[in-house]
Amino acid sequence: MPTLDHERALRQATGLRLIAGIDEAGRGALAGPVMAAAVILPLDAPDLLETLCEVNDSKQLTPAARERLWKVVTARALAFGVGSADAAVVDAAGIMSATRQAMAAAVAQLSPAAEALLIDGRIRLAHLPYPQQALIRGDSLSLSIAAASILAKVARDRAMVALDAVYPQYGFARHKGYGTPFHLATLARCGPTPIHRHSFAPIRQTLL
Asked: What are the angstrom distances between the C-alpha of 136 and each of 6, 29, 89, 121, 155?
């Protein structure tokens, strides 16, 4: 289960206290935005680990658990933010640049502002003037990143449910834009929508 060890080690190394965990959701989807969240936890709160004992990598949680933990995380966080980059940004800038844009937008919403960043994976936000640590499998190691993974996933799932009402034949509420057999079959039959990532190979093939 994720702990606060990495947050506390970064605080000890830098002397900084407001450390944001950052994660993304939707990077591998064929449709919809890539979204990111940033969460600053109160590292010295004596009951924090107990209150957030169920927080884990969002992929290990059910949708109902993620929705419930959204409320717990947002209630206990010192600050949180959610950012997004839509399919047009993904197509124009590439998925990694779009992911960084979504992360930077999430960080920009934090109040109080972050002083240092813990980022899931190998990503660095080179244009942001904060000490940063990229942490592989961070959503299973760092409580702040795990909390951010839940917020990013819930926010993106909600966005895809809303888009399902606009494009009901695609089943976005069910598969959230990922390349399921149903989604690929619908693409072959109906073609892509404006919210599909036209630069991704399965979509490009339908446009040939």
From this structure: 12, 20, 25, 4, 23
